[in-house]
Here is the input.
Amino acid sequence: MKRLLSLLILLGIIIGLAFYLSLPTQEGLRSLGEFYLESSYFGDYSAKSPEVVTSILWDYRGVDTLFETAVFFLAIIGSLTIFRIEGKKERAEAKSSLPLPVPVVTKFIATLILAISASIALHGQLTPGGGFQGGVALAVAPLLIIAAYSKYALENNGLDKTKAIILRSIGLLGIALIALIPLLSGGHIMQNQPIFPAEALGVPLGGSLIYYNIFEFLAVGAGFTAVFLLLAIPEEEFKEKGGACE
Amino acid sequence: MSEILFYLGALMIIIGGICDLLGAIGLLRFPNFYVRLHAATVGTIGGAVVPLFGISLLSLGADFLPHKYAIAGASFVTGVIILLAAPAGATALAYAAHRAKLVKWEPKVDHLAEVRKND
Here is the structure.
């Protein structure tokens, strides 16, 4: 009874505050909003991208995002160093020991996740989302496959740790190159318009935003996949090879 | 026609809410892991899939809604995906718990043992 009473009082306070703290309706555009729109969609040197957040992240706050990406890569490199294992890999057979519906549904869902993550990344300049979000969604697919089959299912099909790291490095290299290209044609580093095309075949590309998104998608997805592959190493194998003791 | 779709969809959303409530109560009150897993699945299938199908019917019937076909299609596809994924996840959980012998097994009725006894 006492708990019910306190619950009711809490509910009353919350509802009262919600009525009291109703936000004032905004009329017209504030100067900050105007600046954002002018620098992301309308201006001559803007990204011409209707998705303002991606535009802010990769365009006129791009160096900040570049360093954030660098921090993420350092974290991945750190975990790769900790879980270093030398020696030849032996590959066991990849067979799911789970009941039949689980692996079948996992196959289906993993395929769907690949398509959806690519869609999140490639629409990054038009809709909410972008490279990082798409990459994180992409990394769920190998994680599901590791859970339902084993890590050998990925490795026997050619996606081992080395390849994931190579893909990740290609992504980072791509981001760096895209950032440096404007220097060649007399612009500033990470400048967006008018060096990159604003649209192709009637589809708005957002200048360099789509390239950043694609490479970030690749880098984040492959980086997480590498870490998941490392974490999925069986404990016996890790102890045999003396991974952390050296 | 569109009114029928609208009210059918609204009814399915209400059914979903009731299923969610029952699933939550079951999750709190049921005695062991397997029965609680059943309650959680009632919450996902009855409380997420049915209202998603309801939303797709409702939006097909709602003429005032912009992009109503997009909303209907998206919620239908999401419903089908959850309909596939939720039983698979529940199966995997139950199987893992059974294999690891983490849950004490106290059957009230064991048909398998009865069959074995009769053989």
User: Anything to note?
Assistant: The mean pLDDT of chain A is 82. Chain A has ten helices and two strands. Chain A has one domain: 33-83+107-235. The first strand of chain A starts at residue 199 and ends at 200.
